[in-house]
Predict the 3D structure of the following.
Amino acid sequence: MDIPLDATALSAYAAQTMVSTMVTEGWKEARAWLGRFFSKSSGEGDAELAVIDMSEEQLAEADDADIEVLRRASVRRISSRLEGFLTRNPDALEELRSFLSEHPQASNTYTVGSQNAVATNHGQVFQSGGAQTINQAGRNS
């Protein structure tokens, strides 16, 4: 997938990449790079890294039942922070794009997908995230 050009899409892409990388051996390198990246702006680096570190700690301590909810919340939180940072520091857009393109093992985790479900004959489809339940004539399948 091509790396997005605008701040909003790039922030979402980078946040997904960072959250996915948190559970790999590449996280230490990515986190160190983020520290250098955020420190280029006056006084913002520590606050931005604190948010990312909090997300990483929550994911590391989460049980299986909570991990997906925490992962999505972390992506939203980090994406929002990155978008704000990139809006205040537009020169950083190219640097973030460059990092993601030079580290394909980190950025190959971003995926976009869709699910389509159609119910017929009074059937019902309940869809949430990646889960899907189909009820047809009083039967679950």
User: Anything to note?
Assistant: Residues 113-141 form one domain. Strands lie at 124-128, 131-136, 139-140. The two ends are 34 Å apart (CA to CA). Residues 78 and 100 are 15 Å apart (CA to CA).
